[in-house]
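Try this one yourself first.
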């Protein structure tokens, strides 16, 4: 039989990938243990898989600081807003069952909901473009979150508030929308949200350690949660799980979330059409493209495509990332709500495996001062304002003041669009003059008008 020579480049690449994978556990150990050693994170779990191959599944730090209990293998965490993709998948399954359609109006299922004359569809709820007031931004929610009350009380609270904007005009991350989707799921399916997710999603994906969270049920391997106050870790604030509900009340492990990604992205959960709908962002009323779709952010940085979502809830932070071109899943879970973002750890792990994405920056030819000035508009929880400044030959993005201030150097992408990290600024001109900017950080996409 004739021997076929293997190209040298293929051999080198295979050797590089094998070496990267063999050193991966040590790399992750260094990334995750650093904030644990400095006391900024109590404990963490990380899982990394490429295709069906599980590369890493480890626990770090402590499940209980008071008793010095180490984080066990397959530790259970509250995953916060990573819940939203499960809620979205549940809605899509009901659409496959012909029990609803994405463009059905909310009032078809909740006829008493006051829409103030607006046409609010399930699609608006799924991609945060409904304009309904977000309940987690309301000061009254701080008291309600500790009480066990009928869900109607929360709906009455946020539905009595005026819309932030007309549906489809902007995108502002919105927990009220996903709370309402949970009520729709229950009404249409005849099951509780918890039962529907278990039977139609968890069981299908083989997620035996996942469930609707409980404040009272004893769960083996459930880690305690910690908040950060004045730089120190404290026991997490109480939150009744009546309220995060379908916007953020699921519990899971890093390994189970790997199983979920395998099932979801391999077509084992949804039909091909439903899956395509779930990962394809739409547009706003003015034609602006979104990067958030149904419980997922869909981004492309330097040619690297990423489908992802993070979560934050009292005592816990989570990040679930999927790189479709490489079939790579990275899960990072913390039992600490604080200054360390699991998304940054996940990105560093991806860079260690795939290399850093290529730079997409272009040279700007023209007068940068045409963009400088103050811009104001709506934001999550209230008005927002930014400043754009020119320093030397670079444009800077500024927001806030004091210790929490943001000052970022902008990179030019072309077509009056600039970026820093995962944020896009698309400037709009009228009569050749810059009059506004669309600020898009995936979970928010709002128009800010130039004030000067």
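Now uncover the answer:
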């Amino acid at each position: 039989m004739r021997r076929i020579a293997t190209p040298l480049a293929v051999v080198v690449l295979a050797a590089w990938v094998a070496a990267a994978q063999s050193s991966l556990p040590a790399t992750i150990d260094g990334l995750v243990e650093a904030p644990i050693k400095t006391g900024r994170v109590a404990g963490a779990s990380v899982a990394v898989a490429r295709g069906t191959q599980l590369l890493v599944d480890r626990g770090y730090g402590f499940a209980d600081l008071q008793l010095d209990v180490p984080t066990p293998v397959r530790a259970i965490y509250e995953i916060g807003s990573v819940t939203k993709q499960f809620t979205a998948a549940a809605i899509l399954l009901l659409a496959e069952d012909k029990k609803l359609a994405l463009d059905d109006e909310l009032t078809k299922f909740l006829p008493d909901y006051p829409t103030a004359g607006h046409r609010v569809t399930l699609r608006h709820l799924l991609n945060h473009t409904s304009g309904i007031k977000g309940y987690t931004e309301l000061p009254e929610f701080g008291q309600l979150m500790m009480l066990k009350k009928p869900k109607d009380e929360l709906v009455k609270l946020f539905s009595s508030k005026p819309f932030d904007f007309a549906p489809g005009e902007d995108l502002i991350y919105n927990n009220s929308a996903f709370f309402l989707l949970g009520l729709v799921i229950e009404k249409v399916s005849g099951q509780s949200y918890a039962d529907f997710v278990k039977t139609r999603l968890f069981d299908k994906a083989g997620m035996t350690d996942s469930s609707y969270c409980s404040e009272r049920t004893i769960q083996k391997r459930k880690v305690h949660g910690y908040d950060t106050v004045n730089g120190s870790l404290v026991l997490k604030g109480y939150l009744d799980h009546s309220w995060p509900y379908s916007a953020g009340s699921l519990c899971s492990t890093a390994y189970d979330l790997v199983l979920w990604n395998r099932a979801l992205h391999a077509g084992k959960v949804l039909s091909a059409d439903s899956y395509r709908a779930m990962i394809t962002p739409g547009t706003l009323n003015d034609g602006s493209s979104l990067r958030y779709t149904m419980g997922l952010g869909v981004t492309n940085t330097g040619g690297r495509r990423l489908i992802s979502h993070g979560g934050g809830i009292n005592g816990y932070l989570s990040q679930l990332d999927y790189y479709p071109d490489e079939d790579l899943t990275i899960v990072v879970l913390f039992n600490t709500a604080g200054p360390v973002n699991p998304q940054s750890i996940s990105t560093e792990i991806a860079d260690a495996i795939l290399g850093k994405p290529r730079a997409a920056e272009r040279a700007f030819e023209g007068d940068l001062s045409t963009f400088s000035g103050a811009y104001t508009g709506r934001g999550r929880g209230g008005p927002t304002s930014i400043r754009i400044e020119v320093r030397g030959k670079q444009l800077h993005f500024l927001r806030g003041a004091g210790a929490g201030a943001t000052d970022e150097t902008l990179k030019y992408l072309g077509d009056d669009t600039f970026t820093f990290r995962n944020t896009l600024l698309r400037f709009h001109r009228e009569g050749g003059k810059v009059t506004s900017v669309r600020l898009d950080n995936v979970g928010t996409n709002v128009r800010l008008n130039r004030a000067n």
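Discussion: DSSP finds eleven helices and 23 strands in the chain. Residues 8-37 form the longest helix (30 residues).
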